[in-house]
Structure prediction request, 272 residues.
Amino acid sequence: MGWRDRGVEIKTPEQIEGMRAAGLVVARTLELVTDLARPGLTTGELDAAAESHIRGLGATPSFLGYHGFTGSLCVSVNDEVVHGIPGSRVLADGDLVSIDCGAIVDGWHGDAATTIALGEVSDEIRALMTVTEESLWRGIGAARLGGRVSDISHAVESYVASQGDYGILEDYTGHGIGSQMHQPPDVPNYGRPGRGPKLVRGLALAVEPMITVGSPDVDVLEDEWTVVTTDGSWAAHYEHTFTLTPDGAWVLTALDGGRARLEALGVPYGGD
Prediction:
């Protein structure tokens, strides 16, 4: 069975460049909304700013209209893990806010997420943010041409487990990405290494650990989108889209291509 028979899309270098253009739109939009977010602002106001910015850069929001989703961002607050619908909710001091953004340029997608704290949060929540973000980079850093998708999964899980008693969502995963936002293969945040599709040049993946300070069990609210922890514990969510070149990893949704974080891990950087 070949790659395309399994639905895995392999891009040319020129198509990866198109994904980089989409990734930069996402990176700049997340930078904008991170700077804009403050107590008193609604999640809908953040979303409107994001949509305007994405369109102003000549791109289209990936999320808007996706299976009926009504926002250009997913904005998830505190015990909301992912897929929060932007609207009338007013952000408050001390909130933990996860922001997920996608954009399309010339038919190619970029997808990334970050988590921010508004004002003062506890040391426990600061640690959660740090562990979740670092696990994302450890996952990307474990990827090598010729390796397997679960090498990423194992690196995420191993790092999180080494840092304390955190919950790792299992029913929500990273994914392939390219001419569609969600494609095979799934990229779980747990598992044994050496399994799953082979990591080859032209494959692009979105890696996105979703980590809680309590149980990993979740429910979906009546809006049929917002994922919340069943025990009310808070969660963090970070995501990047990346690919592998012969030189190393290239993070398409990071402004610097991921160079600084990858080099800090001693991982080869594969961008321009």
Summary: Confidence is low (pLDDT under 50) at residues 1-5. The first helix runs from residue 13 to 36. The two ends are 33 Å apart (CA to CA).
